[in-house]
User: Which sequence fits this backbone?
């Protein structure tokens, strides 16, 4: 039987609560990014971590296991989420991978099918090019937070926040949560459409 997530500690609960209440940038800066170099995004709404040095700083931890878990998720993001290399899924995901995105079935094979159907394979880059805000780890959990520019019903630009929440077991990703809604568009959604540009692409 697949291992289920154990209850998160108070620090992670505070972070997720702040995220859901729309207080994420302040919570991150106060709790987790005190010593992390950041670059200001074009919107000025949130600090975007775009340079190689700044992203590597996010992966640091006094706990070797937490550092390893963050690097695992970071490298997977570069190679699969961003790079579209579905053939690398076995390197990063358990066969019994549990998926909580309502548009994708659980299981590594279903993930491979989703990646291949939603984005082309691209050159693997050394950094995450999506507008990254932070990567946080506690126990066996890793949280990746990014910005997403959107347009409202009147066509006006605004920025919202996206998160991917992972559980890692034995060096592989075993479970995933995100705020995706069930829509036909999400079945073919390529997050590279939100790549950072201009000042965010250092």
Assistant:
């Amino acid at each position: 039987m697949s291992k289920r997530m154990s209850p998160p500690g108070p620090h992670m609960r505070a972070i997720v609560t702040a995220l859901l209440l729309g207080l994420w940038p302040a919570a991150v800066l106060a709790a987790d990014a005190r010593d992390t170099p950041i670059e200001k995004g074009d919107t000025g709404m949130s600090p975007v971590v775009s340079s190689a040095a700044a992203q590597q700083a996010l992966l640091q931890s006094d706990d070797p296991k937490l550092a390893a878990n963050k690097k695992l998720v970071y490298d997977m993001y570069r190679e699969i989420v961003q790079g579209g290399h579905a053939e690398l899924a076995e390197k990063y995901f358990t066969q019994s991978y549990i998926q909580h995105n309502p548009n994708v079935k659980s299981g590594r094979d279903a993930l491979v099918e989703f990646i291949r159907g939603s984005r082309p394979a691209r050159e693997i880059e050394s950094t995450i090019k999506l507008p990254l805000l932070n990567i946080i780890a506690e126990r066996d959990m890793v949280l990746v937070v990014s910005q997403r520019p959107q347009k409202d019903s009147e066509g006006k630009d605004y920025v919202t926040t996206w998160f991917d929440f992972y559980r890692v077991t034995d060096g592989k990703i075993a479970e995933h949560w995100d705020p995706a809604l069930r829509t036909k568009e999400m079945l073919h959604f390529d997050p590279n459409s939100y790549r950072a540009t201009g000042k965010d692409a250092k």
Residues 18-44, 197-202 have pLDDT under 50 and may be disordered. Strands lie at 39-40, 47-48, 93-99, 132-138, 141-151, 157-169, 172-177. Helices lie at 10-20, 24-31, 52-58, 64-82, 89-92, 108-118. The chain has one domain: 10-200.
